[in-house]
Structure formats: C-alpha cells, structure tokens
Design brief:
GO molecular function: methyltransferase activity
Distance between the termini: 26 Å
Helix content: 25-40%
Shape: globular
CATH class of the largest domain: Alpha Beta
Pfam family, one: DNA_methylase
EC number: 2.1.1.37
Order of helices and strands: EHEHEHEHEHEEHEHHEHHEEEEHHH
Number of domains: 2
GO biological process, one term: methylation
Strand order of the largest sheet: 3-2-1-4-5-7-6
Organism: Thiothrix winogradskyi
Number of helices: 13
CATH architecture of the largest domain: 3-Layer(aba) Sandwich
Amino acid sequence: MMRFAEFFAGVGLVREGLADDGWSCAWANDIAQDKKETYIANFGDNDFVLDDIWNIAKLPEQIPDNVFLYTASFPCTDLSVAGDRAGLAGKESGTLSALLDILAQKKQRNTHPPIVLLENVKGFLTSHQGKDIRNTVKTLNILGYTVDIIEIDAVIFTPQSRPRVFVVAVENTLAKQVMKLKAKKSILDTWWNHFHQNPQLRSTKLRDLIQSNPDLNWGLFDIPVPKKTALKLSDIVEQVAEDSPLWWDTEKQHYLFSQMSTGHRVVIKEKLNEPDYFYGTVYRRMRNGQSMAELRSDGIAGCLRTPRGGSSKQILVQIGHGSWKARLMTPREYARLQGVRDSFWMPNNANKGYFAMGDAVCVPAIQYISKHILKPTYDVWYQEQHSYRRLVKSW
C-alpha cells in the first residue's frame, strides 16, 4: 500500500491531491486547531496529531515506520518576499529543521521514507542568497537522498497565479533507477542538456542555483510539461444575488475606485457596457507609502494569502451590463482556485475559510506530481521489493 505521512498538514490538500492515485495517509500533523477541525471534518480523526513539530521531533517513534513518502508544506512566512525574509533562521519557516531532525532519527533506525516531498514559495530558492536551499539539499544528501527541484505555478491548472517550489528527495539507491543523475565531474554534460528541455518546470534561476552548487547530489525526473488549463476566473465565481449584502455599498465601492491608478479605472470604464460580466481581482498594496488598489484584469486571480490584515483579502469586481460591483471573494471561491472539489467541507466562519485555503497547496499540482513522480517511483520500488522477496524464497 502507498502510505505517506503528512507534516504541516493544514486542512489536508496534499492528502486531497494524492487520493486519486490511491495513496493512504498513515499519519498527519499540524499545530493549528482550526485547521484540524477542517481536516477531520473531511478525512476523519484516525491519523491526525495536533502538536508542535518540535515536540514530534522529541518522540519520532509515534510516526509509523512503514511509510514510503513524507510530505511537508512547511510555513512560508520567513521565506516569502512579503515577509521579513528571515529564511530558515525564522521561527516559522525554521520548523523545517524539526522535520530534517526527524528524518535523521529515522535514518539511524533505518526506518526513513524512500522519498520526501517539500513544498514552499519560490523565495526558498533565493533566501539568504541561496544558502537556505543549499543547506537543505546538503542535509538531504547527507541523509542519503538525491534531490530534484521543480517549479510549478498553479496557474497551469487553475485561474490563480501561485508559483511554488517542490523539492523531491529520493533515496540514493532508488534514485539511480528513477532519475537522471548528475555526473560529479562536470555540470555541463548530457544531464545538463536535458535540463534545458523543460524551462517551464526549471527556471534559469534554478539552473544557476544548481550550477553554483555542483558538489551536491542532484537528479532529474524526466516529466512532461503540464497542459495549460482553459479555466478563467469567471469559471470559479459563485453566483451571488445582486441584492446580497456581500456586495459592497456605494461609498465603499467608490473608495476602492479612488485607490486605483488611472489605467485600472480605464479598464473598469471600458468594460462597463460589455454584454457579459467581466470579473477581475483586486489586492490593496502599499506603494510609496500610499495604499493602492491594484486590479488584475487578465482572468486570473492573484496569489491567495491568509487574512492577516485587510490588504491580504482578495477583492472580486464584477463589471458589465452598465455597472460594476465589488465584494470580497468567498471562501468557496478560494477553494476552487486551489482546485478543491465543492463537496470539501469548509468552516462556516469566513476568516477560518480564508485561512484554510490561503496558505494551502494547489490540489492539481499535487496530482500532477503524484502521477508523474511519486507513484511511478513507488511502482519501481514495489517491483524491486517483491523481486527480492521472490528471490529469497527461491533460495
């Protein structure tokens, strides 16, 4: 059975993404009570442990040993360009160290997982001038893993701009069978030429990172570039009644308009008389000490965030039929932008719903990684294990 342990589980969107391929969650952990409530409402309470991961690291034996995969969408707070960039030295993003400590302890007992999947913002690649990602890969190398890094933007799958980095670490013996390994002597070999074939999955920035760290154990998965979705923002919008109190009053709407640049006001005026409703999203941002309302009008939502302040909630504008309206996006719309099914239970409290989805992972991105990396790797491992067992029996 394809069993995995889910660290920094949140509301379980990694689990949601792995479900289609038949993965079974053996154990899950998060520190947030609100997220636990959503998690168990959707998946039950058989395997969820509510605790600080540093406490888990003190008792790693509570994590099942017969697990093939560890997943960890660890906090991005200190890695994001919107944060203070403390990196892995920060209190929240630094919790990755607890996971690495757990892996080290499992390694000593020879009960470590054959594959580890880490997910975070693209700032992980540049934090502390690349030292944070280098140290992470080096630690994984020391623990016996070969590492690939893949960049995936949720916009490939859903109408949300959400670029993320996925670090995939595979046990060295297994890596030889499922990855293209980098030769130690030269970075500019056939491996490197292959690397250039998928620039959408591995950017120039990532190429430079790998090239500047040739001493690390790098490998590549030969995977296809995912097909771009045709979905637009209009496809995920909930139908809210025209007289719903969710729509802002005239005063609040006019204030939003006053915060926009001339160009964004022109966009609204140009689309007023469109026969079909046009939808765009707005974030408030500080520009030169002034709060500005920035309209995105390409049919794609901005990157979802957790509601830690008024500016972090994404605003939806509806334009057409001679008028325009504004309101906050709904938690269900947030969920749809993360590729979550409508039957997924969401908290009744809007803020809890925003938190549930604002710092979660895009479900189709996980499905893609499972289909092209995780499950094929498990299949190779499984065949090898059973071939060995048959050989032992034949003796």
